[in-house]
Structure formats: structure tokens, C-alpha cells
UniProtKB/TrEMBL annotation:
Keywords: Lyase, Pyridoxal phosphate. It comes from Rhizobium aouanii. Residues 23-309 form the Tryptophan synthase beta chain-like PALP domain. InterPro entries: Ectoine_EutB, Ser/Thr_Dehydratase, Ser/Thr_deHydtase_PyrdxlP-BS, TrpB-like_PALP, TrpB-like_PALP_sf. It comes from the Bacteria. This is Hydroxyectoine utilization dehydratase EutB. The lineage of its organism: Bacteria, Pseudomonadati, Pseudomonadota, Alphaproteobacteria, Hyphomicrobiales. Coiled coil: none annotated. Its cofactor is pyridoxal 5'-phosphate.
Length: 333
């Protein structure tokens, strides 16, 4: 089944060899507090400890290393909600290339500043990922830059899938993997990796209730547009592209379930990560914890939850922890 999809287990293993030494093999820890709640062992994959603060460095690095020297010399460009932009800026700098990152005005300022610090040319365009993508398309067409998509690329998906290989290496008995779901690059890659090795493993995509483009597209049976809305899980915002070539088909084939989380549940996940696990994670990185806390994960264990990113504005994080952060479209916690 997996071998007929755009990215295979062999592609992911090749990516792991390619990016070895350029990304961190992140820790896996057992959460006894969540295990007591779930009634089965729960492990946390601490991918927010990655060099650029999120899993995105895996895909960006694999994509950069898959380009020819001539392509790298033209410069690379991408649309991003923040974490892919930071990862691509870092990976491009490491290879002596110039990165241009296009983002909407919904991207938090802390992420924009870090991308600029890494030397990338930042373009702020519109109020949606789709509008940022239009600027990317223009730069490719008019200035000859090479696009490195944030998710809908076999090279990017294969890079993200290396995280799945690490999960199976460290918790080979895992029966359920909880994956943050946005454009589907991480979910598709991880699912292809873990199911390629252990076909019976269950992979669940987790996203916010409002503006969940992949969930809406899976429900519709084809890629659709959704309105982008502010969320604590801002990294999960953005569309999947109406001409999606890779991740929609892979998520449709490989995900066993998609679960939606409220803003209050995401905030609770962030608070639990800090208070009980001693981890600072952004909203998107807390959705696995949030789903367990909300009682939305049922079945056998062990469960592995991916903590995907730590690039949160620290003032926002403080407010979430203290319960003073206004929740988008909801009453406070």
C-alpha cells in the first residue's frame, strides 16, 4: 500500500542517510502523568528540541540537499506560517544559499524576527497562507527562485518521515502515534514511515477546530479552501493547496483518524506540558498532550505523541500558563 504513494519507506530511509549529522535525533521520554490518565503507556517525542525549534528542519534540509548546486545558487523561496521558514532559512544558510520567506500578517512576530536573524529575505503578504503563496509563485516566475514547499513536496515529506523512523527505533511496540496535522507533510511522512515498518500501527492527525484545511479537504474528498483563523496552534493554519500533489493523497490513505481540538483544550495541553512534563511548547506542539487530556484518544498503547515545536511567543506562553490568555473565539479557560 505505502509503496504506491508519492513517498515510500525507501525514500524516507534515503532521506535519513542524507540528513544524518545535520539534524538532531530528538529524545523520547515516557509521561507517567499522561499514562495514568490514558491507562496505557504514553511516550513524548521531544521534536521541539530540534535545532530550529521544530520538526521542519528535517524536510527543509532534505529538500536543500536534493537540489543541484545550480538550483541552490539561484536562491530558494517558500511560503510559511513560521517554522518552515525558520528551518529553510537555517538549511539554506548552511549550504551557502539565499532564502526568501513569504508569510502572512497572521504569523507571530517572534517567528518573523528569528527568520530575519538567520539572514533570510522576509516578505509579509496578505492575511493567509494562500496569499503568501501567490508571492512565492511570482518570485519563481519572475526572478527564477527555486520553491521549497512547506509540505507538498516528496523531498519535504521524506525528510519529515525520518521522525517516524526514530519513533519506531525507540518505541518499537507503539500501537498509536499522535501527529499534529496542518498541510500534512509531517503526518504523511510519519505515517508512511511507521506503517511501512509496522502496518497495524494507528496514526491519528490532530488539529484545531477552526480553519483545519486538511480535515475539511478529507471530509470533502478533494482539496478545498478554508478561512484562516487565529489560533493558539498558529503553525497548523493555512490551506493545503487546491492543486495538492502529495500530502492530501497520503493523508487520505494513511491516517486512521483526524481529531479536532478546541482552543481551551490546546491551552490545557500547553499548561500540562509546562507544569507536568517541564516542556515549553507552542500550541501546535501541544495537541497530542491536549488530545490525551481531553479523553479523545482511546484504544491500546503504547501511545507516542509528537511535540512538534517550541517556537512560541514567551509572553503568550506566560499568559496561557497563568490562564490569562484570551482564547480565540472562546471564553477563557
Amino acid at each position: 500500500m505505502v509503496s504506491t504513494l508519492p513517498v515510500s519507506l525507501e525514500d524516507i530511509r534515503a532521506a535519513a542517510h542524507r540528513i544524518a549529522g545535520r539534524v538532531i535525533c530528538t529524545p523520547m521520554v515516557q509521561s507517567f502523568s499522561l499514562g495514568e490518565l490514558a491507562g496505557v503507556p504514553v511516550h513524548l517525542k521531544l521534536e521541539h528540541h530540534q535545532t530550529t525549534g521544530s520538526f521542519k528542519l528535517r524536510g527543509a534540509t532534505n529538500a536543500m540537499l536534493s537540489l543541484s548546486p545550480a538550483e541552490r545558487s539561484r536562491g530558494v523561496v517558500a511560503a510559511s506560517t513560521g517554522n518552515h521558514g525558520r528551518a529553510l532559512a537555517y538549511a539554506a544558510k548552511a549550504e551557502g544559499a539565499v532564502a526568501t520567506i513569504c508569510m502572512s500578517r497572521l504569523v507571530p512576530e517572534n517567528k518573523i524576527l528569528e527568520i530575519r536573524r538567520l539572514g533570510a529575505d522576509v516578505r509579509i503578504v496578505g492575511v493567509s497562507q494562500d496569499e503568501a503563496q501567490q508571492e512565492v509563485d511570482r518570485l519563481v516566475r519572475e526572478e527564477g527562485l527555486v520553491m521549497v514547499p512547506p509540505f507538498d513536496s516528496p523531498d519535504v515529506v521524506a525528510g519529515q518521515g525520518t521522525l517516524g523512523l526514530e519513533i519506531i527505533d525507540t518505541v518499537p511496540e507503539a500501537t498509536t502515534v499522535l501527529v499534529p496535522l496542518s498541510g500534512g507533510g509531517l503526518a504523511a511522512g510519519v505515517a508512511a514511515a511507521v506503517k511501512g515498518i509496522s502496518p497495524t500501527i494507528k496514526v491519528i492527525g490532530l488539529t484545531m477546530e477552526k480553519g483545519a484545511a486538511m480535515k475539511a479537504s478529507l471530509d470533502a474528498g478533494l482539496p478545498v479552501q478554508v478561512e484562516e483563523m487565529p489560533s493558539l496552534a498558529d503553525s497548523l493554519g493555512g490551506g493545503i493547496g487546491l492543486d495538492n500533489r502529495v500530502t492530501f493523497a497520503m493523508c487520505r490513505e494513511l491516517l486512521d483518524e483526524v481529531i479536532l481540538l478546541t482552543e481551551a483544550e490546546i491551552a490545557a495541553g500547553m499548561r500540562h506540558a509546562y507544569a507536568c512534563e517541564r516542556q515549553i511548547v507552542e500550541g501546535a506542539g501541544a495537541v497530542g498532550i491536549a488530545a490525551v487530556l481531553a479523553g479523545k484518544i482511546r484504544g491500546r498503547g503504547p501511545i507516542v505523541a509528537i511535540l512538534s515545536g517550541a517556537n512560541v511567543d514567551m509572553e503568550q506562553h506566560r499568559q496561557v500558563i497563568n490562564g490569562t490568555q484570551p482564547l480565540y473565539g472562546e471564553e477563557g479557560p
